[in-house]
Amino acid sequence: WIVGIKIKETIKNPLKKVMGSNKVQVGIFGDGKLTMLANIFEDGGGRWGNTPSWSPLETAAPKILEAGVAIVKQEAAQMITNGKDNTLKKVALEGAGILKETIEGIKSPGNKESTIKKKGFDNPMVDTGKFKKAASGKVNGTGTFGKGKLG
């Protein structure tokens, strides 16, 4: 199961007319362990037990949509002249960056003292960095824009 945020065609979505049937997805893709971890973070305990709900994807979604709209507005003329591909890749890359910033920025609830000792720092969303590096974007189901970049 792919965890991601889709900028979909809807009547209320300002990207609808420009995007057509194109889709930009931002999320944690690939490795089953990482997508399961994303599910745990989004679910916050529920079926996974007593885990805090950090919800990085849900938290980042409004910022990603806002950034996507801004990029499309800024590049509307370019999209008409040169096609949508570069603009959609920029939206995917920017969305991945926003998700990475969100993952880094979630600090509460913090780690237990034993976890802080083990990790050497108190950031509940970062341990090895693999989860954060896995945040990426796709255009029409392909590409991994932003994957592996930490900044």
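(the above was protein one; protein two follows)
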Amino acid sequence: MKITICGSIKFANKLVEIYHKLEKLGHQPMMHEEMFNIADGSAKKLIQEAKENHGATKRKYNFIKIWHEIIVSGNAILVCNFTKNNIENYIGGNTLMEIGFAHVHDKKVFLLNSVPEKVNYTDEINVMVDKVIDGDLTKIF
């Protein structure tokens, strides 16, 4: 299955790790190429720009449109939601949009961890998610 990996760039290392695990399970994982560079530290300029002005960096590197294209070209997305900003299983604005992109294009939506309880859009996430896999990549069908 062609699976787009979504999640915060703060967790780029974990996303790359999950990418390789999905490959070993026979899937075709996909994500923005810069995630590999962010994870290994070679995207120093991008990382610094994101720290200074996250929104402008997303625009400059075309993150939202590129993620949309990747999502549309696949069969499913895997939302890698970890604890961030003291919110367990955090899903931020960009990732919420990515879930929406997948949903309206009839792609399966998998959550790595349960739906966050401390966000104002829990209902919207629940409507669009097909399956919570509780950290078990073998539950992706």
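Reviewer note on protein two: The chain is about 45% helix and 15% strand.
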